[in-house]
Each structure stands twice: as C-alpha cells, then as structure tokens.
Amino acid sequence: MFKPAPVDQNQLADALKPFGQSRMLPVGAYLDEAVLAWEREHLFAGWVALGRSEEIGKPRQMKAFGLGSSGVLVTRGDDLELRGFENACRHRGHELLACDATAEARAIVCPYHAWAYRLTGELIGAPGHKEAESFDPADYPLHPVDVREWHGWLFADRGSSKTFEEHVQGLDAILANYEGQELVTVETHEYDVAANWKVVVENYQECYHCSSIHPELCVVSPPESGDNIDPQGDWMGGDMDLRDFAATMSLDGHSDGIVMAKLDEREQRTVMYLALLPNMLLSLHPDYVMTHLLTPLAPGKTRIRCSWAFPRQVAERAGFDPAYAVDFWDLTNRQDWAACESVQRGMSTPGYVPGPMAPAEDGVYDFVRYVARAYAGE
Ligand code: FES
Ligand SMILES: [Fe+2]
Fold it and tell me: What's the gap in Å between 96 CA and the centre of ligand 1?
C-alpha cells in the first residue's frame, strides 16, 4: 500500500473506470511538482533500469548512474560481482563519481577529501583520521543499493515491495530469444524532451498517432497491426507486424545486420514494443534492440537516452554502420517528441480536462490504469 498521490480524486476515479469509459490521468499528474515528488518516492524508488551491464563488464570497473536528483554507483569487483551503492560519500556527501562517469580502479576514492572505499563498500582510508580516537572506519561503509543484471541490462532498487522476479514476471520468455546479454550497444542518443515522462510512455503505448505523424514508419509497418499482451508484472506492450518486403524498421525496410539466430517465425516478422515501468522502453526488432531510458527532470521535462544494440558479430564487423536503424528511429523519435511536447503545452492550458481513449488505445489504458492504481494507493 502506498500513500495516495496528491491528485484530483474525481479525475482519478474517472481514470480507473473500465476501458471504454475511462479517461486519461488527472491533469495535475503531468503538471504538478508534488505529483512528481510522490512518483519519485513511490514509483522510481522501486526497480528502475540504469543502463547496460556491458558498460562495466570488467573487474574493477565502476559507473555512476543518475536517477533524477541523485545517483547510484555500480561497481564490478574482482569476483565479477556487481554491487550498488548510493553515490554519496559518507564524509560530507560529495558524489563519488560524477553522474554518467566510468572509472577503473582498485578502490573508490572520493574526489573531495580523498576518503577511499573498497569496491565492496568498506571505508579503508580517511586522510588525517589516524589521531582521531573516536573514529572507526567500520562505522562508515557506503550505503548499499540492490542491483540486478538481467538480459544484459542493469537495474537498481532502493526499496521496492516486490522482488525483481515479480517486477518482470512473464517477461523472460518474451526476451529469451533476443539474447540480450550477448548484444553490444553501438550508438546512444540523448534527448531532453519538454514533456512529462508519462506523456512519453503513453505515446509509446499506441500507434493510433502513427498515420498522422509517422509516414516513414507506416511504410514499413502497418500502424493498425498492434496486438497487446495482457499485462502481468510491472510491464505492458505488444508486437506490430513488419510489411512483407521489410526486413526490419528502417527507412526502406532493409537491414545491414542479421536476423538474430534464435528468433521464432513470428519474432522474425514483428517488432515487440515493451514498457517496463517506470523508466524503460524496449523495442525488440529481428536484428537489433532499441532501448529508451527515461529520467524525469521536472514535471514538464524528461531526459531520454536511446540506445541501439546489435548481436556481437554484427557490432564488431569491420565497417558496420548502424545508420539504417539509428536514422530511422532518430527521425521517428523526433516526431514523437514534438507531439509529446505539444501535448504537454496543450494540457497546460486553462480548463483542460482529461479526455477519453480511442478503441485502439488499449495499451494506453493498461499504463493509465497501472499508474492510477498506484496513485490510489494500491
Ligand atoms: S566528501 Fe568525500 S571525502 Fe569529504
Ligand atoms: Fe510514435
């Protein structure tokens, strides 16, 4: 049970009605600081995606991942184990590594006054403290954060009521054939979008907008071909067909990669779009996997890191150019962000009230219901 969110209760009741009668979330959910503060405390304090484990693949590597206003430091020890810590020194709180920075070292040394910690978190040195009798380094280990590596992605948890297995229940089978742990990230784009993070997820959950704003997408994938899976864990989504001539999502349907070795017939001819809440969008193509990681910066601002990962033999092929995939989605991303930013501005107009959903927006409903139930304290 959560403390209920500070949103309009009548509008929340409307959002919780059955599909067909339900409305979008209360307007304040997209505009109010207090709602984002509540979401950070309740939705973003559980399991969140950080990035790829390949970023710290070797022993003694570490990386600081930003999580809105604070961050998590993940280290890989000599034993190859991953460990997570709050990215804050036990002395005066300086970040141990700058957000997004990586390092390779035997110890974590705070850049401010050089307190040093083992990669397992114990404090091993605090300059000038030898004479201080009352000081015991054992009293100041780094604060641990649970981290998990799953299909090559990294997740952290600062207090979920769920196990990771409950969080992703049913997803392993959907991801298995894409062999995520074997993929190599080839390109990453970062976008700052002037829209609430939920506007971005809602946009991802429907292709009702595709024929209006994505002419290039409609060339390679029929916009009405979406087929949603009944949600189980903290995720939702479904697949869409590729047109017969198209090998993948690219401007002309061609692929410069290879069809992943283990995909079944359906997986070879569809793209699976999944939202793993709160902050990860996963798009599984026959030949590459695209990931969007969302970090809310403000009610009307979201940082989105979009990455493209390919099977290792493609990624490491001399002269491999991921542009066929990257250019297509960069264009499509920008079309989406423009729409999301316009929605954000429109929702900010006086008198705006949450609207109804179209029959093709059942995926949006799955998301709205998930968030609305959390707002209600369920
Ligand atoms: S804040 Fe880290 S050593 Fe002082
Ligand atoms: Fe779109």
Answer: 8
